[in-house]
Design brief:
Elements (H helix, E strand, L loop, with lengths): L1 H8 L6 H11 L9 H13 L7 H8 L4 H59 L1
């Protein structure tokens, strides 16, 4: 699930089968999960040219790499700071949506309670 979310945030969404194939390609201990070492292996294989061009792992490596020799350390720093900022903005946006949804639920519950109270008062007058 974490890999799926990461790929979506990077703008390279994958299907469930695509994700399983990505994991299988670097899963050295055959546990069906990516350890940190196996995650780093993705980038090692990408640098060595061992990943298929159309694989999700190649897309992942391509989306999250920077050549420090051409960009310099400050360029790499800017690249990663921009990535972190983009993730934080997406997270903040998600929090705003959740807050709006909670507010709507709260308003709906209050409306339901007011209707119930009104019906109770209305029934008192009918008797």
């Amino acid at each position: 699930m974490e890999l799926k979310l990461m790929m979506e945030k990077l703008g390279a969404s994958q299907t469930h089968l695509g994700l399983k194939n990505m994991i299988k390609e670097v899963d050295e201990d055959f546990d069906g999960k990516l350890s940190f070492r196996e995650f780093l292996l993705i980038f090692r294989k990408a640098a060595a040219g061992e990943l298929q061009e159309d694989s999700g792992l190649h897309a992942l490596a391509r989306l999250s790499e920077i050549d420090v020799s051409t960009e310099g350390v400050k360029g790499a720093k800017s690249f990663f700071e921009a990535k972190v900022q983009a993730i934080n903005e997406a997270s903040r946006f998600e929090e705003e949506i959740k807050a709006e949804q909670e507010e709507k639920k709260k308003q709906a519950e209050e409306m339901k309670q007011r209707k119930a109270a009104f019906k109770e008062l209305q029934s008192a007058f009918k008797q």
